[in-house]
Write a structure and sequence with these properties.
This protein has 119 residues and is mainly beta. The chain is built from no helices and eleven strands. Strands 2, 4, 5, 6, 9, 10 and 11 form a seven-stranded mixed sheet that branches.
Length: 119
């Protein structure tokens, strides 16, 4: 009933920038927290950044000062602006949204988008 569609991944040189987008659609009354997670080969999925419905943000130490998470509540969309990219940022990036309908709040995940940073 809810789908998260990601876009914006790709190949970029070290020091470059990418902007990821994730739009939620379906049976949605409102969305609580939204966030971005990533998983590199051979590693566990880790939190990158989260943002509350009111706009309060939280970042992993490894991306502070380089990445910016934002959201557009009218569009049910979360963004991740990634600047000064490093090879160690290479991973599959997944968006997450806590979606509220008339009965409950449930977590949904995007399919993931590949970000590759070359040196």
């Amino acid at each position: 009933q809810v789908q998260l569609v990601e876009s914006g991944g790709g190949l970029v040189q070290a020091g470059g920038s990418l902007r990821l987008s994730c739009a939620a659609s379906g049976s949605i009354f409102s969305i609580n927290d939204m966030g971005w997670y990533r998983q590199a080969p051979g590693t566990q999925r880790e939190l990158v950044a989260t943002i509350t419905s009111g706009g309060r943000t939280n970042y992993a130490d490894s991306v502070k000062g380089r990445f910016t998470i934002s959201r557009d509540n009218a569009k049910n969309t979360v963004y991740l602006q990634m600047n000064s990219l490093k090879p160690e940022d290479t991973a599959v990036y997944y968006c997450n949204a806590a979606v509220r309908n008339i009965f409950a709040v449930r977590d949904y995940w995007g399919q993931g988008t590949q970000v590759t940073v070359s040196s």
